[in-house]
Amino acid sequence: MTNKRRLRVASYNINGINARLPVLTRWLAESRPDIVGLQELKCTDETFPAEAIEALGYSAIWHGQKSWNGVALLSRVGAPVETRRGLPSDPKPEQSRYIEAAICGLLIGNLYLPNGNPWPGLKFDYKLEWMDRLHEHAQTLLDSGVPALLIGDFNVIPTDQDAARLGKNQRPRADVGRDRSLARPRAADCGCA
């Protein structure tokens, strides 16, 4: 009889891994997800805090970029085997937005999709082009028959409900309103919900 267990997979936009390392290490120690995708590392490959993550029992691969972007995959169920760094035909490969690895019988792609602001403009056009390349790559993964999972920060707001969680003393953030690129119809209809 095969002993099956569920994998706990998490995605976390860390928004500066070195500045938030104590928060990340506490969360990893308390929650113990099996596989984690991190986005917005905002560090170079050389300054990624590998030792701190390894001390918690995680293996990691990362694709860093100074001050911007950056993605990583962490695993405590086997070392990630990198299969792709960047999307196929990316015209801006210097933007560290995608990393993919085989982990525990799955192919996992972790992404940090461009936000596309301001709208309209070149950055929004780039976002839509990036989404098209992601869709093409996702179709390739599906067609391969390999078990695959895409996780990360898709930078879309499909519904108003996704814009913010408002509590008693919170105000909506002006930069996530429906007039921004995150909620534009073509971007919000990404087919990933």
Q: What does the main sheet amount to? A: 4 strands, mixed
CATH superfamily: Endonuclease/exonuclease/phosphatase
Any guess at the CATH architecture?
A: 4-Layer Sandwich
- Classified by CATH, the class is Alpha Beta
Overall strand count: 8
CATH topology description? Deoxyribonuclease I, Chain A
**Considering DSSP H and I runs of 4 or more, what fraction of the residues is helical?**
10-25%
Return Rg in Å: 17 Å
Count of distinct structural domains = 1
Structural class, by secondary structure, is: alpha/beta
- Total helices: the number is 4
Shape: globular
Strand order, sheet with most strands: 1-2-4-3
Distance between the termini: 35 Å
Sequence stretches where pLDDT stays below 50 over 5 or more residues: 166-171, 174-179
The chain-level mean pLDDT equals 86
Order of helices and strands: EHEHEEEEEHEH
Quick description:
The protein has helices at residues 21-31, 50-54, 122-144, 185-188, and strands at residues 9-13, 35-39, 59-63, 71-75, 81-85, 98-103, 106-112, 148-153. It is α/β, with parallel strands linked by helices.
Layout of helices and strands:
Blueprint: E1 9-13, H1 21-31, E2 35-39, H2 50-54, E3 59-63, E4 71-75, E5 81-85, E6 98-103, E7 106-112, H3 122-144, E8 148-153, H4 185-188
Parallel strand pairs: 1-2, 7-8
Antiparallel strand pairs: 2-4, 3-4, 5-6, 6-7
Structural commentary:
The protein is of the alpha/beta class. Helices cover 22% and strands 23% of the residues. It has helices at 21-31, 50-54, 122-144, 185-188; strands at 9-13, 35-39, 59-63, 71-75, 81-85, 98-103, 106-112, 148-153. The chain is globular, with a radius of gyration of 17 Å. It contains four helices and eight strands; from the N terminus they run E-H-E-H-E-E-E-E-E-H-E-H. It has a single domain, classed as Deoxyribonuclease I, Chain A, CATH 3.60.10.10. 30% of the residues are buried.
